[in-house]
Every structure is written in structure tokens, then in C-alpha cells.
Amino acid sequence: MTIGISGASGQLGRAAADLLLERVDPGELVLVTRDPSQLDAYAARGASVRRGDFDDPQGLREAYAGVETLLLISGADIGRRVAQHAAAIDAGKAAGVRHIAYTSIINPSESNPAAAAEEHRGTEEALRASGLEWTMLRNGIYGDLQLMGVQAAIATGRHVHNGGDGAVAYVARADCAAVAAEVLAGSGHEGKNYDVTGPELVSGADIAALASERGGVPVEAVSVDDETYVAGLVEHAGLPEPIARFLASFGRATREGQLNARSDVVETLTGRAPRSLRDLLDAADRA
């Protein structure tokens, strides 16, 4: 069976590729990216590296040729992703792909105010309508992305967030990659929606407590409204307002309980307990 990864040069794609190379012959792995030179090391290991761009459907058909099972990693072009992903799905179908696993989001429903939910929902709908076999990998928010925030909280004595009393089961990117590798190389995953989460729900107050514990200094959890949070990201983090609002939407979703899924998918599929946010912090300290 030939396995493909679309978006293979990103962190998730590389992590999944590394795991797959431990399980399958390199000649059975196709890595698709806009810039193949970024994956020269994988080509040297025997994987096929091909150029593919969401905005070039014909090129995608050629890139996906011979692939039976494809990991479609969601793109970063916010606002254009449904059309781009649909083009990739169509290209996969035309190329003979049988099964697509797509990296979605926890609870991509209309009730979820997280700004990414609509595009993930649209992509899931396109994939279900394609006639292909599918698996939805509904990845939680990466715990890896919280590490800098914890360091900032230690430095300032404040963890500012707009998640209210809500909580999220932050997941390690490596665990998402492990689940993806199992779905691609394993069997029986067709037609499944997998919530891929960490082991425990973590609130803003919990993050402040972790930061206080690790830094040995008091850290206060400061819950603010969305507008205050956006203004802080613009003023103190230097983010453009549209990006700040995009990020703030996840705090609102957390506050409203739309991202509070917690599952045993990581352990069930990989045989290993998922990493907690504390585990990720410990690993960062050792690095």
C-alpha cells in the first residue's frame, strides 16, 4: 500500500513521516509539498518527494498518482482553505486515492465560534460528499503552543486569557502525528471521527498554577473579555488585529465549552498514554 502525506514539510507532516518510515518501506511513502527541497533528507532515505500546491489541481493529481491512502494536512491560507482542500480531495479522487484522512478540529460544528471551525466543517462536508473513504482526525489545540505562554507568565507573573472558566485537553503534536501514522498504516479507520486530545482538561487557572510551580513565583490567572484580549495581543505581542481576533475566537470557544472534548484515542490507537501539558513542559526543560 502506498501512503501519501500532503503538506509533508510542516512539523506535523515530518513527524508523521518519521513514524511511518519505521513501519513501511520508504518506497511506499509519498511526501507532497510546495517546496520539495525542504524534504531532501527524506528523499535520501528512499521516500518519494513530489511538488504539490493546493492552487495547482493538475499538479496535485500528478503528485497523488499511485497513492492509496492520503493524509491531507489542513493548509494555512485562512479564508481559502475550503476551496483548496476540496481541490485536493478532487485531485486525490482523480488520481485513484481510496482513503483520505483529514486533520480537522475538535467540534467543527456551527455552534463552535472558533474561527477555524467553519473551514474545517466545510472540508469535512466536501470529503464526505466525495465518495472516498475518509477519516476525520479532529486534533485538539496543541499543547506545544502553550510553552511560550507559560514562560511569559513566569516572567510577568500574569497569565492573561479569555477562556473564562473553560478548559481544553491540550494535545502534543507528536501524539497527533502518532495517531495519523496509525490511521495511515493500520486498518479499520474508515468512516471514523477521532477526537485526538491530551489526557486532561486544563483551564487558564491551571496554566497559571503550572507556571507558578515551574517558575517558583506567584502567577495570577487574569481572565479578560475578548476585546481586551485582542487589544493585548496587538499592543504587547505585535500581532495584526485579524490574527489577534482569530486567536481570541478560540478563547471564546473554550469559555463556551465548545472545545472541552477529552478522549482516549491516542492511547487506544497507539498503545501509549498521551503526553500532558506538564509532560511537554518537562521535555522542553530537558531540551
Descriptive labels:
alpha/beta, 287 residues, 7-stranded parallel sheet, Rossmann fold, two-stranded parallel ribbon
Outline the structure in words.
The chain has 287 residues and is α/β, with parallel strands linked by helices. The chain has helices spanning 11-20, 40-44, 57-63, 81-95, 117-129, 147-156, 173-185, 204-215, 226-236, 241-255, 265-270, 277-286, and strands at residues 3-6, 29-33, 48-51, 69-72, 99-105, 133-139, 158-161, 167-168, 192-196, 202-203, 220-223. The strands form three sheets. The chain has a seven-stranded parallel β-sheet with strand order 3-2-1-4-5-6-9, sandwiched between helices. Strands 7-11 form a two-stranded parallel ribbon. A two-stranded antiparallel sheet has the order 8-10. The radius of gyration is 19 Å and the shape is globular. The model has no long low-confidence stretch (mean pLDDT 96).
